[in-house]
Amino acid sequence: MARRPAKKTIESRLVGVERGIRSLQANDTTIITIIKDMQEGFARMENRLEQVYNHVDGFMKLHETLDIEFRVIKE
Predict the structure, then answer these.
(1) How far apart are CA 37 and CA 41, in angstroms?
(2) Cα–Cα distance measured from residue 11 to residue 18, given in angstroms and rounded to the nearest whole number
(3) Three-state SS at 3
């Protein structure tokens, strides 16, 4: 005959629930930290992309200027 599982006391169940809540709180804190880190990373990346855009824009303007000057010299 199979053994019946031992009944859990209310106290042991409450301890288990408390552990679960602490685990969830720890997970929430970790998730919040990760989100803040991601936001900071996106801000840094946005700044870098802005710098790249400025360099490319400057290069394009220089290229257009040189192209105009070359045409003037050629004529």
Answers:
(1) 6
(2) 10
(3) coil
